[in-house]
UniProtKB/TrEMBL annotation:
PANTHER family: ABC TRANSPORTER ATP-BINDING PROTEIN, CONSERVED COMPONENT OF ABC TRANSPORTER FOR NATURAL AMINO ACIDS-RELATED. Residues 6-255 form the ABC transporter domain. CDD domains: ABC_Mj1267_LivG_branched (cd03219). It comes from the Bacteria. InterPro entries: AAA+_ATPase, ABC_AA/LPS_Transport, ABC_transporter-like_ATP-bd, BCA_ABC_TP_C, P-loop_NTPase. It comes from Rhodoferax sediminis. This is ABC transporter ATP-binding protein. GO terms for molecular function: ATP binding; ATP hydrolysis activity. Keywords: ATP-binding, Cell membrane, Membrane, Nucleotide-binding, Transport. One of its GO terms (cellular component) is plasma membrane. It holds the Pfam family ABC_tran.
Amino acid sequence: MSEVLLSATNLVKRFGGLAAVNDVSIDLWRNRIHAVIGPNGAGKSTLTHLLSGDLPPTTGSVSIGGKDVTGWAPERISHQGLGRSYQKTNIFLPFTVWDNVRLAAQSREAQSPWNPLGWFSDTRRVATKSVATHARCERAIELSGLKDRRRAVASTISHGEQRQLEIAMTLATEPQVLLLDEPLAGMGVAEAERMVALLLLIKREHAMLLVEHDMDAVFALADRLTVMVNGQVIASGTPAEIRADAGVQAAYLGE
Ligand code: ADP
Ligand code: MG
Protein backbone atom coordinates (compact mmCIF):
# COMPACT_ATOMS: atom_id res chain seq x y z
CA MET A 1 0.00 0.00 0.00
CA SER A 2 1.30 3.41 -0.89
CA GLU A 3 1.55 6.07 1.77
CA VAL A 4 3.07 9.50 2.25
CA LEU A 5 6.33 9.09 4.19
CA LEU A 6 7.56 12.67 3.98
CA SER A 7 5.51 15.80 3.66
CA ALA A 8 6.92 19.30 3.25
CA THR A 9 4.59 22.29 3.43
CA ASN A 10 5.24 25.82 2.15
CA LEU A 11 8.99 25.67 2.64
CA VAL A 12 10.86 28.95 2.32
CA LYS A 13 14.63 29.44 2.68
CA ARG A 14 16.06 32.93 2.48
CA PHE A 15 19.75 33.74 2.26
CA GLY A 16 19.73 37.49 2.91
CA GLY A 17 17.58 38.97 0.16
CA LEU A 18 17.55 35.78 -1.93
CA ALA A 19 14.67 33.30 -1.60
CA ALA A 20 16.58 30.15 -2.65
CA VAL A 21 13.47 28.05 -1.91
CA ASN A 22 10.23 29.98 -2.16
CA ASP A 23 7.01 28.32 -0.96
CA VAL A 24 7.68 24.73 -2.02
CA SER A 25 5.41 21.89 -0.91
CA ILE A 26 6.14 18.28 -1.72
CA ASP A 27 4.89 14.82 -0.66
CA LEU A 28 7.08 11.72 -0.97
CA TRP A 29 5.24 8.40 -1.21
CA ARG A 30 6.49 4.93 -0.48
CA ASN A 31 7.39 3.08 -3.71
CA ARG A 32 7.49 6.29 -5.72
CA ILE A 33 10.27 8.42 -7.13
CA HIS A 34 9.66 12.16 -7.09
CA ALA A 35 12.16 13.96 -9.30
CA VAL A 36 13.03 17.63 -8.85
CA ILE A 37 14.47 19.28 -11.94
CA GLY A 38 15.43 22.81 -12.87
CA PRO A 39 18.39 24.88 -14.02
CA ASN A 40 21.47 25.51 -11.86
CA GLY A 41 20.67 27.79 -8.95
CA ALA A 42 16.98 26.81 -8.96
CA GLY A 43 17.14 25.78 -5.29
CA LYS A 44 17.08 21.98 -5.69
CA SER A 45 20.01 21.22 -3.38
CA THR A 46 18.78 23.77 -0.84
CA LEU A 47 15.42 21.98 -0.83
CA THR A 48 17.15 18.67 0.00
CA HIS A 49 19.03 20.40 2.85
CA LEU A 50 15.73 21.66 4.28
CA LEU A 51 14.28 18.13 4.19
CA SER A 52 17.33 16.51 5.81
CA GLY A 53 17.77 19.17 8.50
CA ASP A 54 21.14 20.31 7.17
CA LEU A 55 19.54 23.75 6.93
CA PRO A 56 16.58 25.04 8.97
CA PRO A 57 13.77 26.50 6.85
CA THR A 58 13.01 30.20 7.25
CA THR A 59 9.33 29.25 7.31
CA GLY A 60 7.32 26.14 6.48
CA SER A 61 7.35 22.64 7.93
CA VAL A 62 8.55 19.10 7.28
CA SER A 63 7.04 15.91 8.66
CA ILE A 64 8.36 12.38 8.35
CA GLY A 65 6.23 9.36 9.14
CA GLY A 66 3.55 11.72 10.40
CA LYS A 67 5.88 13.41 12.90
CA ASP A 68 6.74 17.11 12.67
CA VAL A 69 10.55 17.24 12.36
CA THR A 70 10.88 20.94 11.50
CA GLY A 71 14.05 22.36 13.04
CA TRP A 72 15.40 18.95 14.10
CA ALA A 73 19.14 18.24 13.77
CA PRO A 74 20.20 16.03 10.82
CA GLU A 75 21.12 13.06 13.09
CA ARG A 76 17.69 13.07 14.66
CA ILE A 77 15.99 13.31 11.27
CA SER A 78 18.12 10.40 10.11
CA HIS A 79 16.79 8.34 13.00
CA GLN A 80 13.29 9.26 11.97
CA GLY A 81 14.02 7.37 8.73
CA LEU A 82 15.62 9.76 6.27
CA GLY A 83 18.79 8.86 4.38
CA ARG A 84 20.58 11.13 1.96
CA SER A 85 23.52 11.31 -0.36
CA TYR A 86 25.38 14.50 -1.13
CA GLN A 87 26.81 15.99 -4.31
CA LYS A 88 30.19 15.74 -2.57
CA THR A 89 31.26 12.22 -1.69
CA ASN A 90 31.45 10.82 1.84
CA ILE A 91 33.49 7.75 0.85
CA PHE A 92 36.65 6.95 2.80
CA LEU A 93 38.93 6.02 -0.10
CA PRO A 94 41.62 3.93 1.71
CA PHE A 95 38.92 1.58 3.10
CA THR A 96 37.23 -1.34 1.37
CA VAL A 97 33.68 -1.20 0.05
CA TRP A 98 32.60 -3.41 2.95
CA ASP A 99 34.27 -1.25 5.61
CA ASN A 100 32.74 1.93 4.20
CA VAL A 101 29.26 0.43 4.38
CA ARG A 102 29.91 -1.00 7.84
CA LEU A 103 31.12 2.41 9.09
CA ALA A 104 28.03 4.11 7.70
CA ALA A 105 25.78 1.58 9.47
CA GLN A 106 27.68 1.93 12.75
CA SER A 107 27.75 5.71 12.66
CA ARG A 108 23.99 5.60 12.88
CA GLU A 109 23.99 3.10 15.74
CA ALA A 110 26.52 5.11 17.73
CA GLN A 111 24.12 8.03 17.69
CA SER A 112 21.08 5.99 18.60
CA PRO A 113 19.21 7.91 21.32
CA TRP A 114 17.51 4.80 22.65
CA ASN A 115 18.26 1.12 22.77
CA PRO A 116 15.53 -1.32 21.75
CA LEU A 117 17.59 -4.29 22.97
CA GLY A 118 18.36 -2.81 26.37
CA TRP A 119 16.89 -5.75 28.28
CA PHE A 120 19.50 -8.17 26.86
CA SER A 121 22.73 -8.71 28.74
CA ASP A 122 25.52 -6.54 27.37
CA THR A 123 27.38 -9.36 25.63
CA ARG A 124 24.26 -10.73 24.09
CA ARG A 125 23.15 -7.26 23.08
CA VAL A 126 26.40 -6.50 21.31
CA ALA A 127 26.37 -9.88 19.54
CA THR A 128 22.74 -9.54 18.46
CA LYS A 129 23.29 -6.02 17.23
CA SER A 130 26.43 -7.01 15.39
CA VAL A 131 24.66 -9.84 13.55
CA ALA A 132 21.82 -7.48 12.61
CA THR A 133 24.27 -4.83 11.40
CA HIS A 134 26.17 -7.40 9.37
CA ALA A 135 22.98 -8.57 7.66
CA ARG A 136 21.95 -4.98 6.98
CA CYS A 137 25.32 -4.21 5.36
CA GLU A 138 25.16 -7.39 3.26
CA ARG A 139 21.74 -6.39 1.99
CA ALA A 140 22.77 -2.80 1.24
CA ILE A 141 25.79 -4.02 -0.74
CA GLU A 142 23.79 -6.61 -2.65
CA LEU A 143 20.97 -4.17 -3.46
CA SER A 144 23.54 -1.65 -4.71
CA GLY A 145 25.05 -4.17 -7.10
CA LEU A 146 28.45 -4.28 -5.35
CA LYS A 147 28.42 -7.86 -4.08
CA ASP A 148 31.48 -8.81 -6.12
CA ARG A 149 33.34 -5.64 -5.08
CA ARG A 150 32.93 -5.84 -1.33
CA ARG A 151 36.62 -6.55 -0.69
CA ALA A 152 37.86 -3.91 -3.16
CA VAL A 153 39.51 -0.77 -1.80
CA ALA A 154 37.24 2.19 -2.53
CA SER A 155 39.99 4.16 -4.30
CA THR A 156 40.37 1.36 -6.88
CA ILE A 157 36.74 1.00 -7.99
CA SER A 158 35.26 2.97 -10.90
CA HIS A 159 33.48 6.32 -10.55
CA GLY A 160 30.14 4.59 -11.18
CA GLU A 161 30.86 2.01 -8.50
CA GLN A 162 31.78 4.78 -6.06
CA ARG A 163 28.36 6.33 -6.63
CA GLN A 164 26.81 2.88 -6.05
CA LEU A 165 28.83 2.67 -2.84
CA GLU A 166 27.35 5.97 -1.68
CA ILE A 167 23.88 4.50 -2.21
CA ALA A 168 24.91 1.36 -0.28
CA MET A 169 26.20 3.53 2.59
CA THR A 170 22.90 5.41 2.67
CA LEU A 171 20.86 2.17 2.56
CA ALA A 172 22.89 0.70 5.44
CA THR A 173 21.29 3.28 7.76
CA GLU A 174 17.90 1.70 6.90
CA PRO A 175 16.09 4.80 5.71
CA GLN A 176 12.43 4.86 4.70
CA VAL A 177 12.96 7.99 2.63
CA LEU A 178 15.97 8.55 0.36
CA LEU A 179 17.16 11.93 -0.91
CA LEU A 180 19.60 11.61 -3.78
CA ASP A 181 21.29 14.72 -5.17
CA GLU A 182 22.53 14.06 -8.72
CA PRO A 183 23.44 10.37 -8.33
CA LEU A 184 24.23 10.15 -12.07
CA ALA A 185 26.60 13.11 -12.17
CA GLY A 186 29.73 12.42 -14.20
CA MET A 187 28.60 8.97 -15.32
CA GLY A 188 29.04 7.37 -18.73
CA VAL A 189 26.10 5.78 -20.54
CA ALA A 190 26.63 2.25 -19.22
CA GLU A 191 27.16 3.46 -15.65
CA ALA A 192 24.05 5.63 -15.85
CA GLU A 193 21.98 2.69 -17.09
CA ARG A 194 23.20 0.56 -14.22
CA MET A 195 22.30 3.30 -11.73
CA VAL A 196 18.81 3.70 -13.24
CA ALA A 197 18.21 -0.06 -12.82
CA LEU A 198 19.50 0.15 -9.25
CA LEU A 199 17.21 3.07 -8.36
CA LEU A 200 14.20 1.19 -9.75
CA LEU A 201 15.04 -1.72 -7.44
CA ILE A 202 15.45 0.55 -4.42
CA LYS A 203 12.13 2.25 -5.13
CA ARG A 204 10.35 -1.03 -4.32
CA GLU A 205 11.08 -0.43 -0.64
CA HIS A 206 11.52 3.31 -0.25
CA ALA A 207 10.19 6.75 -0.96
CA MET A 208 12.70 8.72 -3.02
CA LEU A 209 13.41 12.32 -3.92
CA LEU A 210 15.72 12.48 -6.90
CA VAL A 211 17.50 15.63 -8.02
CA GLU A 212 19.00 14.89 -11.42
CA HIS A 213 20.08 16.66 -14.60
CA ASP A 214 20.06 13.57 -16.85
CA MET A 215 16.59 13.93 -18.41
CA ASP A 216 16.59 10.45 -19.97
CA ALA A 217 17.11 9.00 -16.49
CA VAL A 218 14.57 11.36 -14.92
CA PHE A 219 11.84 10.42 -17.38
CA ALA A 220 12.73 6.73 -17.06
CA LEU A 221 12.51 6.85 -13.27
CA ALA A 222 10.12 9.51 -12.03
CA ASP A 223 6.53 8.83 -11.03
CA ARG A 224 6.13 12.54 -10.38
CA LEU A 225 8.12 15.63 -11.27
CA THR A 226 8.49 19.06 -9.75
CA VAL A 227 10.12 21.76 -11.84
CA MET A 228 11.86 24.57 -9.96
CA VAL A 229 13.13 27.88 -11.33
CA ASN A 230 14.51 30.66 -9.09
CA GLY A 231 13.34 28.92 -5.94
CA GLN A 232 9.77 28.49 -7.11
CA VAL A 233 7.79 25.54 -8.40
CA ILE A 234 6.71 26.38 -11.94
CA ALA A 235 5.09 22.99 -12.61
CA SER A 236 4.38 19.72 -10.87
CA GLY A 237 2.80 16.58 -12.27
CA THR A 238 3.30 13.26 -14.00
CA PRO A 239 6.13 12.91 -16.54
CA ALA A 240 3.56 13.12 -19.37
CA GLU A 241 2.07 16.33 -17.94
CA ILE A 242 5.51 17.91 -17.52
CA ARG A 243 6.58 16.99 -21.05
CA ALA A 244 3.44 18.65 -22.42
CA ASP A 245 3.79 21.81 -20.30
CA ALA A 246 4.62 24.76 -22.53
CA GLY A 247 5.96 26.85 -19.64
CA VAL A 248 8.40 24.10 -18.68
CA GLN A 249 9.53 23.70 -22.27
CA ALA A 250 10.28 27.40 -22.46
CA ALA A 251 11.93 27.67 -19.03
CA TYR A 252 13.97 24.54 -18.97
CA LEU A 253 13.50 21.53 -21.22
CA GLY A 254 13.91 23.47 -24.41
CA GLU A 255 17.05 25.29 -23.36
P1 ADP B 1 20.58 24.06 -7.37
O1 ADP B 1 20.90 22.87 -6.53
O2 ADP B 1 19.20 24.00 -7.98
O3 ADP B 1 21.62 24.31 -8.43
P2 ADP B 1 21.06 25.58 -4.95
O4 ADP B 1 20.01 25.10 -4.01
O5 ADP B 1 22.42 25.04 -4.78
O6 ADP B 1 20.54 25.36 -6.45
O7 ADP B 1 21.15 27.15 -4.87
C1 ADP B 1 20.00 28.00 -4.99
C2 ADP B 1 20.41 29.43 -4.78
O8 ADP B 1 20.75 29.65 -3.44
C3 ADP B 1 21.63 29.84 -5.61
O9 ADP B 1 21.45 31.18 -6.04
C4 ADP B 1 22.76 29.74 -4.61
O10 ADP B 1 23.81 30.62 -4.93
C5 ADP B 1 22.08 30.15 -3.32
N1 ADP B 1 22.66 29.52 -2.14
C6 ADP B 1 22.74 28.19 -1.88
N2 ADP B 1 23.30 27.95 -0.68
C7 ADP B 1 23.58 29.17 -0.15
C8 ADP B 1 24.16 29.62 1.09
N3 ADP B 1 24.56 28.73 2.02
N4 ADP B 1 24.29 30.94 1.29
C9 ADP B 1 23.88 31.83 0.36
N5 ADP B 1 23.31 31.49 -0.81
C10 ADP B 1 23.17 30.19 -1.07
MG1 MG C 1 22.48 21.40 -6.66
